[in-house]
């Protein structure tokens, strides 16, 4: 007789069913994720690497990454085959072959060329955003965690920061538009002040310092994104600071360090890995946001890369770069997905953009994971 | 008078009983630290965790503070280099602490300068996750000393004084966290004495160490007492008898008895001290 024999089969069955349901629901998430990745890769990979497409082709389509977006022309040639090419290529083609048969010619905005402009624009937006967000965020976190007396006022500040994290991104976009684009006290360096908008124009360095607002610009978009990502950065910094053992601070202060010396030499160096990891995750978030930049920074079409377009020298060049609008990946995807009909000709730009963007964001996330593992190994106490 | 305890004996009663037969045996002139009627609170004076403590700590000797957990001995130690300033709501409510004759809570005293003279070694050894060299040089570097040969000299001297030099001289640039617990604590002592303080405060420096490492630290304390005034908080009464010249017994925030260590342990004048040092309670 087995004294440990199960007394209730019903209980056992119930237990098994619960385990199965929980497992099934978990795998549903995994299935969704895999399906999304697989679908995007299946459609997008052949655009970047035509060798994987049905027709075959070159191994790597570098044009897609290095050319600016432009209008796509598609037509039927003398053999009845469908052809499509970017409009500049089409103009050259017709010049070279004036007798070519071109029938059913159609033009599709934004769908030709490559995505160099949006890629560069997103990179610039992220750089401006993170520089500002890190400086302000780390400063705020250090103040809240190390200097401020913990009381009702600091509690209210923390609550405000948490609420900021819950504001919808479109609201940030409108705020950014009102504050960074239109607010006339924001100065630009320019050779030719905008007379209608400018409050004052002060002659400086052979040009003018004109108070006319920043308009639809890289800096307005970057700052709007910075405001949006600040709560994330501050929370992450505070977590990192709290994880530093009290013993480091006490040892430092007991050796006669001032508060700032203590923070600079015994706290911040050890909080850096955490701050870095969090900010890379922040980058992933701001890189993907559409709403905050659609009023403040992004345009659908540009002829040149931002630094090619900026004019002037020194501070005028920098000012021109920062106050000019940019293309951006999320906005580009929105444009080609929502404003362009999907045809055989246009789908390449649509699928390719999404695929490259996904790769971009995933690589940011991988960097974050790598940093976390790397520093965790190196800095242990 | 606050009596918060369900302990068998009322601390206030014991203290008043002891006051009469406990003459303060240290002449004012010889004392490095004078604690004069000090009360201290962690909550802006609502409740005092130290109550009217008065005693003088002699220069060039080892003074042990003993007593059961929560009796205020660590708090008192942290008053001596104003580490309690880190707690926003802490406050010395009565009395004065004078070090070398100066009231250390006076408005013109800079706690940074005070801490350069009054070093501290903590209960849990806490070297920075830097190299051994950088740990010892830390205090000098924050004082702005950059001269390489000066730093080298100070690091070597401090490690020698902390009896650690022979063990680490070949790996000064490797991480301090690779050392054993006892070595890490001696490194912390080296780091503290590198800035040449007058006084070294030790807050249960051996409580996280094994007996062999403890013995080495105790030897070190005996050697260091020639150069520094040492105040040590300890839970271990044998340790107090081994390392200290004088012992103060605290109970519930009051100083019950203060005398030569030999007297405290062999012939205490207060019954309560005797109960504690003989292990009947605590």
Structure description:
- The complex is a heterodimer of chains A (381) and B (282).
- With 381 residues, chain A is mostly helical.
- Chain A has 3 domains: 9-51; 70-113; 116-378, MetI-like fold, CATH 1.10.3720.
- In chain A, 62% of the residues lie in helices and 10% in strands.
- Chain A has 14 helices and 6 strands.
- Chain A has helices spanning 9-48, 63-66, 87-96, 116-147, 152-165, 169-182, 218-242, 246-254, 259-288, 291-294, 306-309, 314-322, 329-338, 347-378; strands at 69-76, 82-86, 103-113, 187-190, 201-204, 207-211.
- A 3-stranded antiparallel β-sheet of chain A has the order 2-1-3. In chain A, strands 4-6-5 form a 3-stranded antiparallel β-sheet.
- In chain A, a hairpin with a 2-residue loop joins strand 5 (201-204) and strand 6.
- Chain A is flat and about 90 Å long.
- The model of chain A has no long low-confidence stretch (mean pLDDT 86).
- A 6-stranded mixed β-sheet of chain B has the order 6-7-8-3-9-10, sandwiched between helices. Chain B has a 4-stranded antiparallel β-sheet with strand order 2-1-4-5, covered by helices on one side.
- In chain B, strand 4 (91-99) and strand 5 form a beta hairpin.
- The radius of gyration of chain B is 19 Å and the shape is globular.
- With 282 residues, chain B is α/β, with parallel strands linked by helices.
- At the A-B interface, helix 8 and helix 9 of A face helix 3, helix 4 and helix 7 of B.
């Amino acid at each position: 007789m087995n004294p440990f024999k199960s007394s209730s089969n019903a209980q056992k069955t119930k237990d098994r069913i619960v385990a199965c349901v929980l497992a099934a629901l978990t795998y549903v998430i995994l299935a969704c994720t895999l399906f999304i990745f697989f679908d995007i890769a299946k459609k997008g990979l052949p655009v970047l690497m035509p060798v994987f497409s049905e027709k075959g082709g070159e191994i790597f389509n570098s044009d897609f990454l290095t050319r600016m977006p432009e209008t796509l022309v598609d037509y039927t040639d003398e053999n009845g085959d469908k052809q499509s090419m970017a409009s500049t290529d089409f103009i050259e083609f017709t010049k070279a072959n004036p007798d070519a048969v071109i029938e059913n010619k159609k033009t599709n905005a934004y769908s030709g060329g490559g995505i160099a402009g949006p890629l560069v624009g997103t990179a610039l937006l992220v750089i401006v955003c993170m520089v500002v967000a890190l400086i302000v965020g780390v400063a705020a976190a250090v103040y809240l965690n190390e200097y401020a007396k913990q009381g009702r006022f600091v509690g209210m500040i923390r609550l405000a920061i948490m609420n900021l994290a819950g504001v919808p991104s479109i609201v940030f976009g409108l705020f950014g538009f009102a504050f960074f684009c239109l607010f006339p006290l924001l100065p630009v360096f320019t050779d030719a002040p905008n007379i209608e908008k400018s409050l004052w124009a002060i002659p400086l360095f052979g040009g003018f310092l004109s108070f006319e607002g920043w308009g639809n610009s890289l800096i307005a978009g970057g700052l709007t994104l910075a405001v949006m990502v600040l709560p994330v950065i501050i929370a992450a910094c505070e977590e990192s600071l709290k994880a530093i053992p009290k013993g480091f601070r006490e040892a430092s202060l007991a050796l006669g360090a001032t508060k700032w010396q203590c923070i600079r030499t015994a706290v911040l160096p050890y909080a850096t890995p955490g701050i870095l990891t969090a900010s890379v995750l922040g980058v992933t978030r701001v890189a993907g946001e559409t709403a905050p930049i659609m009023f403040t920074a992004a345009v659908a079409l540009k002829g040149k890369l931002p630094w090619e377009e900026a004019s002037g020298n020194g501070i005028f060049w920098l000012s021109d770069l920062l106050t000019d609008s940019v293309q951006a990946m999320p906005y580009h995807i929105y444009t080609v997905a929502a404003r362009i009909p999907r045809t055989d000709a246009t789908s390449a730009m649509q699928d390719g953009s999404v695929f490259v963007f996904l790769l971009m964001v995933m690589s940011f996330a991988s960097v974050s994971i790598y940093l976390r593992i790397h520093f965790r190994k190196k800095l242990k106490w | 008078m606050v009596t918060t305890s369900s302990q068998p004996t009322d601390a206030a009663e014991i203290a008043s009983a002891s006051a009469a037969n406990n003459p303060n045996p240290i002449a004012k002139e010889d004392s490095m630290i004078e604690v004069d009627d000090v009360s201290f609170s962690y909550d802006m004076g609502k409740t005092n965790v130290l109550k009217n403590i008065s005693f003088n700590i002699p220069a060039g000797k080892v003074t042990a503070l003993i007593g059961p957990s929560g009796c205020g001995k660590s708090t008192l130690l942290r008053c001596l280099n104003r580490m309690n300033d880190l707690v926003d709501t802490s406050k010395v409510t009565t009395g004065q602490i004078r070090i070398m004759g100066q009231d250390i809570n006076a408005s013109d005293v800079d706690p940074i300068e005070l801490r350069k003279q009054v070093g501290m070694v903590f209960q849990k050894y806490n070297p920075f996750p830097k190299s051994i060299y950088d740990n010892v040089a830390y205090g000098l570097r924050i004082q702005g000393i950059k001269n390489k040969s000066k730093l080298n000299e100070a690091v070597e001297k401090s490690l020698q004084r902390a009896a650690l030099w022979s063990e680490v001289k070949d790996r000064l640039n490797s991480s301090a966290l690779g050392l054993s617990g006892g070595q890490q604590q001696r490194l912390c002592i080296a780091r503290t004495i590198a800035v040449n303080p007058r006084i070294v405060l030790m807050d249960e420096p051996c409580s996280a160490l094994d007996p062999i490492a403890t013995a080495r630290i105790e030897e070190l304390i005996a050697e260091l007492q020639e150069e520094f005034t040492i105040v040590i908080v300890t839970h271990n009464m044998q340790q107090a008898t081994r390392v200290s010249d004088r012992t103060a017994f605290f109970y519930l925030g009051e100083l019950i008895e203060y005398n030569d260590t030999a007297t405290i342990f062999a012939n205490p004048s207060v019954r309560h001290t005797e109960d504690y040092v003989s292990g009947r309670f605590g």
